[in-house]
Amino acid sequence: MRLITLATGLLLSIGAFSQAICEQLTAGFAWGPPTGSDAIQFSNTTTGTGETTVWQWSFGDGATSGDAQPLHEFPGAGTYEVCLTAISVFILPSGESITCVDEYCAPVVIGGGGSPCNGFEAGFTWTATASGNGVLFSNGTTGTGFQTTWQWIFGDGTTSTEAQPDHGYAEPGTYTVCLVATTVFETSSGLLTCVDEYCAPVVIGGGSSPCDGFEAGFTWTATASGNGVLFSNGTMGTGFQTTWQWIFGDGTTSTEAQPDHGYAEPGTYTVCLVATTVFETPAGLITCVDEYCVPVTVGGVNNCAWLSAAFTWGAGANGVEFVYQPQAPSGVQLEYLWAFGDGTTATTQNAFHVYTASGTYEVCHTVTAYASNGTVLCTATSCQAVSWQGGSGSPCDGFEAGFTWTTTASGNGVLFSNGTTGTGSQTTWQWSFGDGATNSEAQPDHGYAAPGTYTVCLVATTVFETSSGLLTCVDEYCAPVVIGGEPEECDPSFALEINSEPSGAGFILAASTNLPNNGITWSFDNGLVLYGSSIQVDLSSVLNIELCISAWYQPNNVSDTCWATVCGLLSELGFAVNVGQLDGEVISVWPNPATDFLFVGTGRSSAQARVTIYGSDGRIEREVSVSGEHARVDLSGLAPGLKSIAVSGRVERFKLVKE
């Protein structure tokens, strides 16, 4: 710390010239222990002195000195704030004299007494303005060095480097404000830079309570031997003072922040952490309490013993309904993944699925248990053989969530228009606006705090009354919403590509786009609609099926979507090539496009066929004889490009793309 002053009685008479002289006076010192002594030798480095100079040392332990180069012994280890005041007299050309004063302070660390950083602590208080959403921040950082800089992070995407900023928020709410303070100390070993951060919730315009961001949580690790457990406290959003109450599930407790607990015997225990924190607000102190509980397994017991993914199912005329009844301890969150055995999946707790063909499918259900902080606790999987014969589809198939949106004329407001179709007798809505806010209205009007791109999701839940009882359907639609930007037109190069690969007795159809897409649908001529980037098709169902594949994406700052669509018969689209009949049996060729090989499906193990591959110029490039139900034809060595295929000398030729 440095302080330059000019004797008050002379300032008015000698003016700016005298002030410039005083600015040359710069107090300073260095320090270090002399050889063979416990005392500290201070080396006076003051510059710009006048005719006469006197020195005033304050050593931070109550002792002082008037020596120019004092030798001082401190009472014990520690960090002391030592100050040198230099008082120097200058003679002006006019013969007048002026007295100038400069002060320099620095921390002196004695006997391993710790770093000067130990006493450096960032902090602030705040006061909301009488009207609007403005806030006055009062910097309360202590223990600074000779040079300090500030970095304020206001929680709304803006920052400041002022010491005492005055900030205005766009709208009410609770914001986490952080002050990162950086200071520099001069020590005997050189310059030392210290950084400290302080964060606190700031409630604006009657916004939500700071308790809303306070969440207890922890993870745990069993020790290598015995029944010991190390608990790692992961509580978030704490105030200026927090206390802990651990309940270990065996009758014992602890108030430590990061306890290490030993259990008397192996087993699974429900451990709870009750966290209590205090916030300072303009209205006074607010105390918040939150509890987090999770099962803890020690002593070699299966960590997932309590978790089961077993499910029940029932086949009906419209499809197969899968039911899972979870039994999870308090504080545990479950995620679900259904694999229906036909290349499609679902992530809901219960599922209703329609197969494109009759048959028996292996259905697997995976359940993953998470702690509230996102840590994976354990996973369980259960698989069953499921049989289904035909049907006309579920009421859920026609239920589709969707919306469009329009920005308001001014500001960052958005009007959402709910476009969900195929609803049942009762429907509820859950909007997630991408900025932490939610809504359950059908047609919400939402205001954003700042411009940007937000991913908005609508989860629609509807109930149908069926002959077998009530059926609940859930569908989700997400789209980016751009605030404060220019509208973006659809990219004319947006295109859809279809590929296939063999899988069992059929093949998997895969769709991809050359630009990122928001979704892909597969619409069959029988009314069935599937979603996702791929589906599985059985060979017995590929003949004369009309199919439309559509992909879409949402351009920035517009409500309309951009689409790419391909329609036609399966054979026309190139998923599999139907080459007619051979001795009363169906022949198919796949995949298309192909790279190193293709398969010829004759429909029976004893069938014989002659495969001829023609180039684009009509010349034969390869001709082979094949037999068996699924015969492989080698394509290696053939040049890439468009080919034609004939089987058993038939006149009809079908196009094949060799990659």
Compile the SSE list and pairings:
Layout: E1 2-6, H1 8-23, E2 29-32, E3 40-44, E4 52-58, E5 64-65, E6 71-72, E7 78-91, E8 97-110, E9 124-128, E10 134-139, E11 147-153, E12 159-160, E13 166-168, E14 173-187, E15 190-204, E16 218-222, E17 228-233, E18 241-247, E19 253-254, E20 260-262, E21 267-281, E22 284-298, E23 312-315, E24 320-323, E25 333-339, E26 345-346, E27 351-353, E28 359-370, E29 376-388, E30 403-407, E31 413-418, E32 426-432, E33 438-439, E34 445-447, E35 452-466, E36 469-483, E37 496-503, E38 506-513, E39 519-524, E40 529-531, E41 534-538, E42 546-553, E43 562-569, H2 570-573, E44 577-582, E45 585-590, E46 597-601, E47 608-614, E48 620-627, E49 630-634, E50 641-647, E51 654-658
Antiparallel strand pairs: 1-8, 2-3, 3-6, 4-5, 4-7, 7-8, 9-10, 10-13, 11-12, 11-14, 14-15, 16-17, 17-20, 18-19, 18-21, 21-22, 23-24, 24-27, 25-26, 25-28, 28-29, 30-31, 31-34, 32-33, 32-35, 35-36, 37-38, 38-41, 39-40, 39-42, 42-43, 44-45, 45-46, 46-49, 47-48, 47-50, 50-51
Structure description:
The chain is mainly β. 3% of the residues lie in helices and 53% in strands. The chain has two helices and 51 strands. The strands form 14 sheets. It has a five-stranded antiparallel beta sheet with strand order 1-8-7-4-5. A four-stranded antiparallel beta sheet has the order 12-11-14-15, with no helix packed on it. It is elongated and about 120 Å long. The chain starts with a strand and ends with a strand.
